[in-house]
Write a structure and sequence with these properties.
There is one protein chain. The chain is built from 14 helices and five strands. The chain is of the alpha+beta class. It has two domains: 97 residues, 434 Repressor (Amino-terminal Domain), CATH 1.10.260.40; 164 residues, 2-Layer Sandwich (Beta-Lactamase), CATH 3.30.450. It has a five-stranded antiparallel beta sheet. The longest helix is centred in the last third of the chain and has 14 residues. The radius of gyration is 20 Å and the shape is elongated. 34% of the residues are buried.
């Protein structure tokens, strides 16, 4: 498994663009999708040689000016720009002191706990950057407890998704859920800190290629909202809309709130909480 997350991100974003996306003529038919390095170099003002070094992991500390130029050339969104900058800050041993001190928080601030209390009894959960469940509402406990998601100490969404034989039954769209779990992990230091590396090794042992291939190809930007399909052991199929609320950079935690997507889900949640 690569630890060159910066290079992977740049390469995948380049491959995701077509000449038309950046205002270039299509030219001859291409054997591979995406922009050529020379085209990104022209758009960004960064040399082909330096872009190659970045993608291959031979240089992992581009300047702020280079990051900004590449962000524009690759048409990155604000979230993607922030992610690219974060990758440059945790890319190699020069930042090992940052990574070593970036222990995933398992403390829950009083204000965050009070927020969860206000969100209850509906389903809501507090997660840290490793996907560990730190706190949740009564509704989330009833929704996910019966499904087995809250097993473990502490409960861990990535471990459940990649390690539990129940996960593919609970989540019919398992591939999408697995993608989201890996993308969320890659928003942090991932393999560049001891906790992230240990979890990645564990998930690789649990799931093999189902995990490693995602870790090598996903850019690390999970969806902030969407619809989750699950099959509850008692209530059957449910469609739930989720919204993710990121806390401060100091917390490195997020709250995920679930709402019924349709009338059957609304009735099922009401029955679970009655």
């Amino acid at each position: 498994m690569t630890d060159n997350e910066l290079g992977v991100f740049l390469r995948l974003r380049r491959a995701a663009l077509s000449p038309a996306d950046v205002g270039l003529p299509a030219g001859e038919r291409r054997r591979t999708a995406g922009l050529r390095r020379a085209e990104v170099a022209t758009l960004s003002g960064v040399s082909v040689e330096y872009l190659t070094r970045l993608e291959q992991g031979r240089d992992r500390r581009p300047s702020v000016q280079v990051v900004n130029s590449l962000s524009g050339a690759l048409r990155l969104s604000m979230a993607e720009r922030a992610h690219l900058y974060r990758l440059t800050k945790t890319a190699d041993g020069a930042f090992s002191c940052v990574a070593q001190s970036d222990t995933p928080s398992r403390d829950v601030r009083a204000g965050v706990r009070a927020t969860l209390d206000r969100l209850g009894p509906g389903p809501a959960v507090l997660l840290n950057r490793l996907g560990e469940v730190l706190a949740y509402t009564e509704g989330y406990g009833r929704l996910m407890g019966e499904a087995g998601v809250l097993a473990g100490d502490p409960p861990s969404l990535p471990r459940f998704v990649f390690g539990s034989p129940r996960a593919r039954t609970v989540f019919p769209d398992w591939d999408e859920v697995a993608d989201e779990q890996v993308a969320a992990l890659k928003q942090g230091p991932f393999r560049n800190d001891p906790d992230g590396a240990a979890l990645a090794d564990e998930l690789e042992r649990l799931a093999g290629d189902a995990f490693t291939k995602r870790a090598e190809t996903l850019t690390g930007l999970p969806r902030a909202h969407g619809v989750l399909r699950m099959v509850h052991p008692l209530m059957g199929p449910l469609r739930l809309r989720y919204e993710t609320l990121d806390l401060s950079e100091d917390d490195r935690q997020r709250i995920v709130v679930y709402l019924p997507e349709d009338a059957p889900a609304e009735d099922a949640l009401a029955a679970l909480l009655s």
